[in-house]
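Problem: given the chain below (371 residues), write out its structure.
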Amino acid sequence: MKNLLLLPLCFALFTCHAQNKKIPTDNPLATELDQLVQKEASAYMQDPARVGISIGVFKDGKSYFYNYGTTELGKSELPTSKSVYEIASITKTFTGTLLAHALVDGKIKLDDDIRKYLTGNYPNLEFEKHPITIANLTNHSSGLPQFLPDQSETFKKPMDSVALILADFYKNYSKKKFYEDLHQAKVAFAPGTDYKYSNVGTQIAGDILEKVYHKSYESLLSEYITQPLKMNHTIIGTNSAKLLTGYNEKGKVMPRNITTIMAPAGGILSTTEDLVKYMQYHLRENDQYVKTSHTPVVKSEEDQIGLYWRIHTYDETKTIFHTGGTFGFSSVLQMYPSKNMGVVILTNESDGESQGKLQDIADSILNSSKK
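Solution.
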């Protein structure tokens, strides 16, 4: 089976027809995998809100790439495996991978009170004498809020305006102000006893990494992940010149997610080409850092959480995954270690159903491998 990157675009560019809607694609429709991706991606793209989608598959030791739609509404420019998307909360798995390095290197322990690494006094970062630990940050059981300062009132406004309000607020929001606001944060429950998704917790995890290594988060990302894996297009969102335009379900252009304060929680930009390399690395479960990042911190019969990685076992098949969503981008990255296989899907449109449907596409590709 040929790697699709080797197929010249003039040969590979086709137009798929589904329900009378023509969708540009570079899918050569030559193999069973091609046909399956065509079926799933075509169905997804029938929604008039969709803009572009890039899919990367690692299977049987080879990488395959598929692209549909356009990079920008009103243009006829097909995305490629090098097109740059916001990957949103998939970023958290990069932070988890760096935490795995810190754990193996003896820089931190999962049961450390996070205040050990914070400058100043934070008596509020506990609940009935139960402190927040690093482990609590990685599995969203810290009880910390999703954002600082609290943005619950902002999210009550019309959704079209929320993205603009938050982008305007956080563009000048400093780390100094973040830690001033952290003094006012309230822990909702005893850490480790419940689940509450928190970007704040991951921001703190990134700062802990910077403190123990005496290096910036961006430097750590480059040193331990992007340079060794030759992920040449994976960057922090402040350098976003090549980033695609992101849209909401109404076709409205959404502001870019460029604030550095959010970098460890959701600030990475990447491509399907790079994320297939990242998946290949995370399929090496004998690697000590990979193994550590996949070791469950929260355990249940079917669903577990490692260092930010979600781990789900169904019908004896383990799936390691994470999704991502900003106001203009949706994404999913899923791996199936027993099959040495992974799927990454990136889109430059976001709505209430997009992440779930991207997971359905990834699941369908997995199910085909069982045949």
